[in-house]
Amino acid sequence: MKTKLFAIFLCASLLAMCARAKTILPDACGDDSVKFDVKTEQGQPAPAPLPDGKAQIVFIESYVKNMPNIGGAPIVRYGMDGTWVGANKGDSYFTLTIDPGEHHLCASLQTILGRMKKNSVGMTSFTAEAGKTYYYQFTITDKSTLTTGATGPGVTNGGGGISEDISFDFAAVTEDTGKYRIKAGKLATWKNEK
């Protein structure tokens, strides 16, 4: 009887710890339980012209290829005004036609690794004008060093784990940079995982 009671107590304690470990995301994001399965395609046509009275936003992911392996190219989810609007994977992009006005954006690395998940969120806001295109890029950078003194993107802490010095940046980029990233990148399409 004591063994069963101990097992029940242990399971309840573990569940409580998992519930507390849930990531709290900014209001601009969506529900953290939403996950995406992303496919990318090279050589897609440029985004279509904007409909009258609308604006466009292009979400770009910049993936440092020599980062520690975190299950292949990372998936980044993008939220706007409290709802996930899509995702991309690796060096990819997608576009979204939006209404003019103020918008609150969020980008979040889709991961189950605790220390990466809690620090991998970027936020910004902007005011969209009809007829304009805005480019936002989520960049993953590793600023750590090995004991040999090597530095740069993708250098791990030497233990084979994820470096504490990995940073995530989500910011507007120039039109020239955005157009180049579309030309050099892959178009991302996604569906929600069940």
Largest sheet data: 6 strands, mixed
The overall average pLDDT, rounded, is 77
Number of domains: 1
Number of E-state strands: 10
Oligomer: single chain
- Detail the poorly predicted runs: 5-21, 145-162
- The N- to C-terminal Cα distance equals 38 Å
| SS strand fraction | 35-45%
Strand order of the largest sheet: 1-10-5-2-8-9
Which percent bin holds the helix content?
A: 10-25%
- Secondary structure tally, helices: 3
Q: Give the topology string: H per helix, E per strand.
A: HEEEEEEHEEEHE
User: What does the radius of gyration come to?
Assistant: 19 Å
Spatial shape: globular
- What structural category characterises the helix and strand content? alpha+beta
Summed up, what is this model?
With 194 residues, this protein is α+β, with helices and mostly antiparallel strands. 17% of the residues lie in helices and 40% in strands. It has one domain.
3D structure, described in words:
- With 194 residues, the chain is an alpha+beta fold.
- It has one domain (25-192).
- It has helices at residues 2-20, 114-117, 175-184, and strands at 36-41, 55-62, 75-80, 83-89, 92-98, 101-110, 121-128, 133-142, 166-173, 186-192.
- The chain has a six-stranded mixed β-sheet with strand order 1-10-5-2-8-9, covered by helices on one side.
- Strand 3 (75-80) and strand 4 form a beta hairpin.
- It is globular.
- Residues 5-21 and 145-162 have low confidence and may be disordered.
Task: Outline the fold blueprint.
Layout: H1 2-20, E1 36-41, E2 55-62, E3 75-80, E4 83-89, E5 92-98, E6 101-110, H2 114-117, E7 121-128, E8 133-142, E9 166-173, H3 175-184, E10 186-192
Parallel strand pairs: 2-8, 5-10
Antiparallel strand pairs: 1-10, 2-5, 3-4, 3-6, 6-7, 8-9
